[in-house]
Amino acid sequence: MTKKKVIIDCDPGIDDSLAIMLMLKSEEIEVRAITIVCGNSPVEMGFSNAKKVLKFMNRLDVPIYIGQSQPLKKKYVNALDTHGEDGLGESFLPEVEGYKQEMDAVSFLKKTLKEEKCSVIALGPMTNLARLINEDSDAFLAIEEIVSMGGCFKSHGNCSPVAEYNYWCDPDAAELVYKTAFDNNKLIHMVGLDVTRKVVLTPTILEYMIRLNPEVGDFIKKITKFYFDFHWEWEHIIGCVINDPLAVAYFLDREICSGFSSFVQIETLGISEGQSVVDSMNFYRKEANAVVLNEVDVKKFWTMFIGRLTGTEPDAAIEHDIQG
Ligand code: BDR
Ligand code: CA
Q: Per-residue b/e over 30-53, b at no fewer than 16 CB within 10 Å?
């Protein structure tokens, strides 16, 4: 069986790291490369964190390409307050040396997307993809499928009342990606906060994973502790919302999230900058350029996440805690 090829465009990032781990444990997929964009962490830090995750997973064969270090127009604002000063939950894992990148992310995307059939899972701001559109729109249009963790429909934002971080960090990039999709009858799969907020890694789920697989469980504990503390302080939640792995899980199994097709436009200015305006009522009479996911099968997600990462299928001991 030929494996589907996927490029993970990300800003690791605690939950990006969990998403990379899930992807690497999915045998039906070939992770063709990881491309780094500025977002949660500046690109050099994101590069360093991606290497740390690949080393832990024993997959240093996966290429990493460093991408855009600034949003298209807006001043860059990182999210190290959420992800810790090392971008990986202040785990301060040792640096991985000796990993040479042969070209920058946009050059890699230009070259590869025209030669190979690949999908892109975008887990950070869309700056690399927007640059790609500006430099070679045919390469962008050759992407098989785009799944984006970003935006929100009815959920409130996490950077402003209406905006989610990835789109808020570089609203001009997100706007261009959705506009280009609209102009070319393409669909972006938008895995936004409406669904990701329902995926909370609780202490019980984490302890269960440690019981099943101490090595993997302890690694996850190390990188999520800071995230747990952040969520307690800001959202009064015991646990942490892990956004990015849900986009990966949805890519792997379309039954994990469901939603509807709609026209979506990203606001770039003013009080609602970064907002994903979802025309679910079809006021604008425009063709859909997105599949907006607004329902999630939480149990299915955890069954996949726990099962693939620990190597053991979850059983009755955790059944009650993974219902969502
Ligand atoms: C998104 O922003 C980042 O903090 C996470 O990695 C995720 O991609 C959630 O808004
Ligand atoms: Ca991310």
A: bbbbbbbbbbbbbbebbbbbbbbb
Ligand 1 centroid to residue 299 C-alpha, Å: 21
Distances (CA, A) of 205 to 70, 120, 221, 270, 288: 36, 29, 11, 40, 37
Quick one: which atom of ligand 1 is closest to the CA of 79? Answer: 4
- Please return the burial class of 141, using the count of CB atoms within 10 Å of its CB with bins 0-12, 13-18 and 19+: middle
Do the Cβ atoms of 220 and 322 come closer than 8 Å? no
* Residue 226 alpha carbon to ligand 2 centre in Å: 16
Ligand nearest to the CA of 82: 1
pLDDT digits (tens, 9 = 90+) for 98-109: 887 789 999 999
Mutate to test the pocket of ligand 1, among 22, 76, 244 (most ligand atoms within 8 A of CB): 244
- The number of the ligand 1 atom at minimal distance from the alpha carbon of 83 is 4
**DSSP H or E stretch at residue 50:** helix 43-56
Domain positions in the chain = 4-322
* Omega before 13 within 30 of 0, i.e. cis: yes
Q: Fill in the amino acid letter for 133.
A: I
Question: What is the DSSP code (8-state) at residue 275?
Answer: B
pTM, 2 dp:
0.97
Residue 56 predicted with pLDDT over 90? yes
Give the class (CATH, top level) of 4-322: alpha beta
Nearest CA residue ID for atom 4, ligand 1 = 40
